[in-house]
Specification:
- Keywords: Redox-active center, Signal.
- InterPro entries: AhpC/TSA (IPR000866), Thioredoxin-like_sf (IPR036249), Thioredoxin_CS (IPR017937), Thioredoxin_domain (IPR013766), Thioredoxin_ResA/DsbE_sf (IPR050553).
- Residues 44-182 form the Thioredoxin domain.
- Residues 1-21 form the signal peptide.
- By secondary structure, the chain is an alpha/beta fold.
- The chain has one domain (24-181): Glutaredoxin.
- Helices cover 30% and strands 22% of the residues.
- The chain has five helices and nine strands; from the N terminus they run αββββαβαβαβββα.
- The strands form three sheets. A five-stranded mixed beta sheet has the order 6-5-4-8-9. Strands 1-7 form a two-stranded parallel ribbon. Strands 2-3 form a two-stranded antiparallel sheet.
- The longest helix has 17 residues, at 82-98.
- It is globular, with a radius of gyration of 16 Å.
């Protein structure tokens, strides 16, 4: 016999397990705003040197990397994260608009397993590099507080902007921030 768990209880259980694992919760409306990243004292903040990394892409788009000399949008996300489903198409629009100018996107999944990552990327229109942070080694360096958490890294390797969660309409602000750095 199959037991049905009410949706609210299932969601709370999933968030509780995620918190127990030491990983950030999903953040959308009501999540801390970008300015709080400057003062939170946790993880990478604006003005910090961005940890560099390079992992294989799971969607055939080369490497998922942060390297000096490039403006890079580093996005920590997960397949179970509802705001991540909204952010991917918006990030793809920015990638299409600024790729020729040198924008890179490094989308780093913090899922415990990599199985659903390529399908998520395809379903949500990602043609930018999407990779898997096996063992959460990269997330341990950045310490994102919400899913998604996005860091804009300048050509000098410094974190210029931090966005916690994803909020409808936020892409206009992100567009402006990227444009100023390219």
């Amino acid at each position: 016999m199959r037991m049905r768990i009410p949706a609210k209880l299932a969601a709370l259980s999933a968030l509780s397990l995620f918190a127990l694992a030491g990983l950030p919760a999903c953040g959308g409306e009501g999540a801390k705003d970008a300015t709080s990243a400057k003062d939170s004292g946790k993880g990478i903040k604006e003005g910090d040197k961005a940890p560099t990394f390079s992992i294989d892409s799971l969607n055939g788009q080369g490497k998922v990397a942060v390297a000096p000399g490039k403006v890079t949008l580093v996005d920590f996300w997960a397949t179970w994260c509802e705001p991540c489903k909204k952010s991917f198409p918006k990030y793809q629009d920015l990638y299409t608009k600024y790729k020729a100018s040198g924008l890179e996107i490094a989308a780093v999944s913090v899922d415990d397993e990599k199985g659903g990552i390529p399908d998520f990327a395809k379903t949500h229109g990602a043609k930018f590099p999407v990779g898997w942070d096996e063992g959460h080694k990269i997330a341990d360096q950045y310490k994102p507080e919400n899913m998604p958490s996005m860091y804009i890294v300048g050509k000098d390797g410094m974190v210029k902007h931090v966005h916690k969660g994803y909020h409808d309409g936020e892409e206009a602000e992100i567009d402006k921030e990227i444009k100023e750095l390219l």
